[in-house]
Amino acid sequence: MDILFLEPQPFYKHRGSPIAVHLLLKVLSQQGHRIDLVTYAEGETVAYNQVEYHRIPQVPFVHHIRAGFSWKKTINDILMIFVVFSLLIRRRYHVVWAVEEMAFLGVLLKLLFGIPYVYDMDSSLAQQLVEQFPRLARFTRTLEFFEGIAVKHATVVVPVCDALVEDIQKYHPQKTVTLRDVSLLDEISEPVELDLRTQLGLNGDPMLMYVGNLEAYQGIDLLLEGFAMAAKQTRPAELVIVGGAEQDIQQYVQKSRKLGVEQRVHFLGPKPIQHLSAYLSQADILVSPRTKGRNTPMKIYSYLDSGKPLLATNMETHTQAFGPDVAELADPTPPAFSASMVHLIENEALRHEFGQKGRQLVQEKYSFTAFRRTLNQLIDWLEYELGHQPENLVKTKPVAYLSKEI
Predict the structure, then answer these.
(1) From edge to edge, which strands make up the β-sheet containing 285-288?
(2) How far is CA 37 from CA 102, 315, 395, in A?
């Protein structure tokens, strides 16, 4: 197929959505599909077979774009629209693969040119906006109305988790295919020599580790407060935090100081994702204290695959991927999270059991092999549904509103 792929993120960067897109492009290009990738100016250019990059122009002062909505992201999204229309003047496509908010552009392209689109859904944009900007709660119905349009008119919606599938049923999607994230340890890891205990001057006390950004929804406040409480209830432990922007790190350094645990909390800043396996192998306990959102964090699958025990909040963002037989689950309050920390710190046999069960779960359900199989089945269905022979390429001329003709 000829695919117009819309990625509204800095690509490639070592974070959630771009990593997922990287895996998609890897499989699609190996299948022989021709892809025009429209994305932001920022990011590393990774070579794929039959994938051509079309980056928007670099705008002064519009860089270092973070996850979530922002004025910088809005400017980049608008520029993507111009790049897309310039391509449509010259080229024809079987389908548009629209990531996140680009689904709304997918609706427009279907209206104007009759090109079907796939809605690649990492999260509910309506929920995400309200969580990031609580004052928008009064406009929830309006936001859901527009989200519903994007869902309803997609040829297929591809959510990243079961919770999103459940959320969008009220919009009556034509078809949904859940394409779950997978462990990254085998796909992108590179061997590296690492000894954190020596590097940080630590002894043999248990090491807890968090990997990821330090946005509010990740629950770093909960993590630090729970760790401070646990420090008063059990033997000494160390908390290592990998990742985060400098301004967020400074904020949480101050918080750890106020909690009196600054000597036991170590902020390492961002590290190459290729070294993820090496860092996870150093930990005794991995933590995911997320307090908001329903989609499962991509890192969870690498956590489980590492063979290390996992402590996570007892929320759907986690429980849709695994149960209490695989990891320690705690309510998202400092006392509960602290109690679960103590439970794992003091129970080495349980840590070993959780580590083994987590790795087994990933091998059965969340491997790259499973990802490839699901994506291949989706593409086979799309090719059959759209009839992708050369004479069936969608011509870029206006057609009837939301016509099903291709």
Answers:
(1) 265-269, 238-242, 207-211, 285-288, 310-313, 328-330
(2) 13, 35, 19
Contacts of 106 (CB under 8 A, 6+ apart): 6, 96, 98, 117, 118, 119, 150, 154
Distance in angstroms (rounded) separating the CA atoms of residues 79 and 96: 17
Residues in the chain: 406
pLDDT digits (tens, 9 = 90+) for 10-31: 999 877 789 899 999 999 999 9
Domains and CATH numbers, the chain: 2-182+367-392 (3.40.50.2000), 186-364 (3.40.50.2000)
Mean pLDDT score of the chain: 91
Return d(Cα 179, Cα 395) in angstroms, integer: 29
What pLDDT, on the 0 to 100 scale, is given for residue 272?
87
C-alpha R_g of the chain: 22
Tokens encoding 286:
């991995």
**Confidence (pTM):** 0.82
If you ran DSSP here, which 8-state letter would residue 391 be given? G
